[in-house]
């Protein structure tokens, strides 16, 4: 459901009222809890150079698009209250006025005051995927990697326990549906462990492993991915709806290296759908990304709870410049094409052929003062998918006019993306 204009106006007014020199607004001490107010507003623009599919048409999604090869949208309008105390308790309540849904809404108890040893209950990001766990306002690229958007388990209601220190940690979680009605659902569990054998300021090496398993609830799933463009209305890879799926389990491997102003990170995920009915074979999809970012102005990154953190510019008046490059792949093919047997004229598929997609993203970020960020990305997409199409009326092949048949379609668009961001 879309938010009302008055709700969005309230979010924007709150953003504009925030002091420009602070990352958050301190409200008061209430009941022994130090309460602060944070927010994030993002506005995006996408310009498409289409190839096969019209990325802004959206007919299959029930959306008409705007009729242009571009799309503009207020991406996020997040309002967040946080509290520290009383004692070792921390709490957070977040809401996205643009998406009309709750964000983090939980209470955490730090055992012995150690932030790496805790109990947590409520809605929170599940322990999987380093990119998913990283702060949205400091994403290296405008769109998260395809595997993160497709396979990672984001915020769910649950209970978690974490144990570790600054160099390592293990978190286990049991979760259910998302707090906002009619969104993500299906109970499950997850575990993530990480280790940073090198962990110094400006010099970090991290490795991690995660596993998440969840019930599909309705015994169906559909895995699909946009071409690393959040406003695109078309998915270039798509398994379609898979029936008779009991559970989905995803294993993730991650790595991170920080050396001064340079950062390299990557993840690989493999997701399996367990199908219980004879004739429907199990499905496995996979993919990964690797990215490199250079802080041209010389700043480095922090490291906390197994994820990199982005600090403020060294000189807030001049700002911080970043340039990055990412290679991203997702493979939703788990089957084969069977040659047609007469009298059939169309090949058939054994298994699932959802498609394969590679993207290369070149990005530039500019952080100005303590509250502003401007991002520009160029995305080069190469995808291939086995689909059902209908031929047109052609004089070259009159025998196949308006005939349904299957074929492999390559779709290689280019996309330019921009984002304006204000946060406090």
TrEMBL record:
Domain of life of the native organism: Bacteria
InterPro entries, alphabetized: Porin_dom_sf, Porin_O/P
Alphabetized UniProt keyword annotations: Signal
Annotated signal peptide: 1-23
Record protein name field: Phosphate-selective porin OprO/OprP
Organism listed in the record: Luteimonas cucumeris
Lineage: Bacteria, Pseudomonadati, Pseudomonadota, Gammaproteobacteria, Lysobacterales
């Amino acid at each position: 459901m879309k938010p009302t204009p008055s709700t969005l106006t309230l979010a924007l007014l709150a953003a504009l009222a925030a002091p420009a020199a602070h990352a958050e607004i301190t409200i008061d001490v209430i009941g022994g809890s130090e309460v602060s107010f944070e927010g994030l507003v993002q506005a995006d623009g996408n310009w498409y150079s289409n190839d096969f599919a019209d990325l802004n048409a959206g007919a299959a999604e029930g959306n008409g698009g705007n009729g242009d090869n571009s799309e503009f949208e207020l991406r996020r309008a997040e309002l967040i209250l946080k509290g520290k105390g009383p004692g070792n308790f921390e709490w957070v309540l977040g809401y996205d006025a643009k998406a009309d849904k709750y964000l983090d809404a939980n209470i955490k108890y730090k055992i012995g005051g150690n932030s790496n040893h805790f109990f947590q209950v409520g809605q929170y990001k599940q322990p999987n995927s380093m990119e998913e766990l990283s702060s949205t306002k400091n994403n290296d690229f405008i769109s998260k990697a395809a595997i993160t958007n497709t396979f990672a388990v984001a915020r769910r209601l649950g209970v978690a326990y974490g144990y570790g220190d600054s160099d390592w940690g293990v978190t286990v979680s049991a979760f259910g549906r998302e707090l906002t009605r009619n969104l993500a659902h299906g109970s499950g569990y997850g575990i993530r462990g990480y280790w940073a054998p090198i962990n110094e300021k400006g010099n970090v090496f991290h490795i991690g492993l995660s596993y998440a398993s969840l019930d599909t609830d309705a015994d169906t799933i559909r895995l699909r991915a946009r071409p690393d463009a959040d406003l695109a209305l078309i998915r270039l890879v798509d398994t379609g709806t898979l029936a008779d799926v009991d559970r989905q389990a995803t294993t993730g491997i991650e790595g991170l290296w920080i050396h001064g102003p340079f950062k390299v990170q990557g993840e690989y995920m493999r997701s399996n759908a367990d199908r219980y009915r004879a004739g429907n074979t199990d499905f496995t999809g996979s993919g990964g990304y690797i990215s490199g970012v250079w802080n041209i102005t010389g700043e480095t990154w922090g490291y906390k709870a197994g994820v990199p953190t982005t600090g403020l510019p060294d000189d807030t008046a001049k700002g911080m410049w970043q340039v990055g490059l990412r290679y991203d792949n997702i493979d939703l093919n788990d089957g084969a094409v069977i040659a047609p047997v007469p009298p059939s004229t169309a090949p058939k598929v054994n298994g699932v052929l959802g498609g394969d997609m590679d993207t290369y993203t070149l990005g530039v970020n500019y952080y100005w003062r303590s509250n502003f960020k401007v991002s520009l990305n160029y995305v080069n997409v190469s995808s291939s998918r086995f689909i059902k199409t209908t031929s047109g009326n052609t004089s070259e092949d009159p025998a196949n006019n308006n005939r349904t048949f299957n074929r492999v379609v390559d779709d290689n668009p280019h996309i330019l993306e921009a984002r304006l961001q204000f946060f406090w």
